[in-house]
Amino acid sequence: MSNIMGYFRKSKNALEKGGITLKNITEEKVRCPICKSYETRRAIAKQKVTCPHCGHHFRIGARTRIKALCDKDSFHELFSNIETIDPLEFPGYQDKMDRGRAVSGEEEGVVCGTAKIRHQRCAVFVMEPGFMMGSMGSVVGEKIARLFEYAAEHELPVVGFTASGGARMQEGILSLMQMAKTSGAVEQHSKKGGLYITVLTDPTTGGVTASFAMLGDIILSEPNATIGFAGRRVIEQTTKKKLPEDFQKAEFLLEHGFVDAIVPRTELRGTLEKLLRQHGRKE
Ligand SMILES: [Zn+2]
């Protein structure tokens, strides 16, 4: 349980770990892990952080995604002032958070706010893969729960981007409690008639998959994203069965009914606009 990223694909370089962020868009060339071609970070960023040759979706920082997704200057951040108190005084936790802040430029594993996507007003949360792999501690849970409460009060749909290694083991049981808290907040928003769209991105795993990531009224995914609860090795060892090669990939989940559609990043704005327009409240 807890932070189970270790069971998934290991990232060798910072580009894969934290993705392309607003800070590191440079002329430096990086290699696509799929088609092995070299391209500058700037060229990749121009294609909404996908490979210009094969379409591979690189990991993307929360701020970069917000910039690529929302109408210009429409994003207003909420709940940015909540900090963890390191409840267990877990050894090395502060250092890890400092590193996460340095890599991602964010204070925590999720960014929340309100925005417009092609003129459609909504509440948005975007998880930050560069901050401790978007792991869910009490701050991440609290910010997401508050966003749903805010959206329910202001009659806004919620669009949420998940990217997480699961619950944050450094906060122990308090991390696991966030699953119930966020799920409860989603339920309250839903009871008031609010629309909730999730976009699963690589990777969405552990306690995040087991709570708000899979509670969307409409569940979209980026291509080739790893989505699962426990890791492949754990399941294979427990069941003593070999799993299919594409197990826990977005395409496999689509085939088996867990995902409604796979949408490439370059088409996301258009798809979300359509869904928000069709299902959202009338002004
Ligand atoms: Zn490529």
List the helices and strands and how they pair.
Elements: H1 14-18, E1 29-31, E2 38-40, H2 41-46, H3 62-69, E3 76-78, H4 93-104, E4 110-117, E5 120-127, H5 138-153, E6 158-164, H6 172-191, E7 196-204, H7 206-209, E8 218-221, H8 232-239, H9 250-255, E9 261-262, H10 268-279
Parallel strand pairs: 5-6, 6-7, 7-8, 8-9
Antiparallel strand pairs: 1-2, 3-4, 4-5
Residues 32, 34-35, 37, 51, 53-54, 56 line the site of zinc ion.
How would you explain this protein's 3D organization?
This protein is of the alpha/beta class and 283 residues long. The protein has two domains: 42 residues, no CATH class; 220 residues, Alpha-Beta Complex (2-enoyl-CoA Hydratase, Chain A, domain 1). The protein has ten helices and nine strands. Strands 3-4-5-6-7-8-9 form a seven-stranded mixed β-sheet, with helices on both faces. Strands 1-2 form a two-stranded antiparallel ribbon. Strand 1 and strand 2 form a beta hairpin. Zinc ion (ZN) binds next to loops.
Condensed summary:
With 283 residues, the chain is α/β, with parallel strands linked by helices. It contains ten helices and nine strands. The protein has helices at 14-18, 41-46, 62-69, 93-104, 138-153, 172-191, 206-209, 232-239, 250-255, 268-279; strands spanning 29-31, 38-40, 76-78, 110-117, 120-127, 158-164, 196-204, 218-221, 261-262.
